[in-house]
Each structure stands twice: as structure tokens, then as C-alpha cells.
Amino acid sequence: MSRFKPAANSFTRPMTHWWWKNRYFRRYMVREGSAVFLSAYALILLAGLYSLARGEAAYNAWRDALATPVCLLFHTVALAALIYHSITWFQVMPKTAPRLPFDPKFVTAGGMAAATGISFFILACLLWATL
Fold first, then answer.
1. How would you write the pLDDT of the chain (131 residues) with one tens digit per residue?
2. Cα 84 to Cα 112: distance, rounded to the nearest angstrom
3. According to CATH, what is the number of the domain 18-98?
4. Where are the domains of the chain?
């Protein structure tokens, strides 16, 4: 028996699927559930990296395991979950992001194009350096 007793008129919320009735919460729960598929896919890629470190035979066995119909179905479901998760994440992000420390009108299309061009140049240099 616990020494902590609830107050006389306290409210205890029943443990039901109350979130299923609200569209906003339903979409939130599906988006959070899609992260399970993304985590499983990350573990599959880590297993591939581990098999690559073990040698060519282990890596080829991992690749053969990925060619089974069950794995192809999983990858299809994981791709759909990834697309849904990405779309809903970018819909939520502007609502939760902190305010910019400067006036947003200073971010111009030319500035975005220049930042994108510089990023691609740096990426190309890094890729060229690894070849």
C-alpha cells in the first residue's frame, strides 16, 4: 500500500486512444511511428557496414539477404515512411523553429543561390579529393 494517497476529488484521465479522435494528434502519432521504420533501416545499414568490415564474403551475404522479397517489401514501406516523415517534418519545422536574429527580408533569392552554389562547390571539392 502506498503512503501517497490521491486528493479526494482528483481527476484521473482514462487510458483510452483519445488521440485517435483528433486529426492533429493522429498525424503526429503516425509521423512519430514512422521513425521506427527509419531507425530499423539505420540498423540495417549499420549491419552492412559491419559486414563490410568483416570481409567480402560477409558483405556479399548481407547484400544477398537484402535481395529477398521480405527485405524488398520492408524497403518499400520504409521509403513510404521516409517520404511521409520528411513531408510532415518540414511542415512542422517552421512552426517550431526559433526566430531569426535578423530581419528575414535580408535573406534574398540571390543570397540563397550564392549559398547553394558555394555548398555545391565545397561538396564537389570534397568528392574530388576522395577520388
1. 556 666 666 777 676 777 677 888 888 888 888 999 999 999 999 999 999 999 999 999 999 999 999 999 999 999 999 999 999 888 888 888 888 788 878 888 899 999 999 999 999 999 999 88
2. 26
3. 1.20.1300.10
4. 18-98
